[in-house]
Amino acid sequence: MTSFLNLVRRHQLTAFFSLALALTWLAFIPFYLSNGDSIPWFTFGPMVAGFIVAALSGGWASVKAILASMVKWRVHPFWYLVAFGLPFGAQLASILINPQFGAAAPAWGNIPAFSQILPIVALYAVFSGPLGEEPGWRGFATPRLLAGHSALAGSLILGVIWAIWHFPLGLVGDLSLYGTINVVLAAVVFTWLYQNTGSVLLAILMHVTHQNSVRFLGKVFTGGDYVQQQWIGVAIWAAIAIAIVAFYGSESFARRPRAEVAVASAV
Question: Which segments does the entry list as coiled coil (predicted)?
């Protein structure tokens, strides 16, 4: 047992990524093979993996650090504006730009009423990724990656693994190239948010906004116009990521040393 714990402590990220993929994929693939389109996607895999590896490698102190970041709400109001406004603004901008490249005018009436959207968003926040993913990706993996890599390199590593984590969704046609690229780009932006707030809560809010602005605002286009709009969205997220690197540099994405903002450092 001691040798196993030592192995986990030495290879925390490998253990976390392996467990996050295993918990999610092993809950998905058997159901796919037996039920076809009736597929559960275990979005809590990264969170469960993060807590397990944190407990094995650092005990209660490491688990507590992740929990504290999940309820850290006292940050500068600017970062709430970023968490809510940036994903929504990027999606809205892509919609307004799309007709300039030959798409039909946006069909705003296709968007459900806010009273209908709100309860669905609340359910999606819990069961469709934000709550189940962010404590793992940002709360556990990000500070450990940044302990040995620059913010840019760590973001890209995490972004690629985050994208790979979604791969089984391709079996049911719920995976696209533009979505995969967007995940990698979003990892850069999420690292920037986390590095300047130390808050997984803010990452959860940004995840909710990003996911649902695409899900609901995207209804204004269909067919090829929708696909084109999503690619424009990818270009906008790429521009945001490039702007972050250009302004902050690639090392930390923050004006303070990384050690001061990475609240769940590896033990």
Answer: none
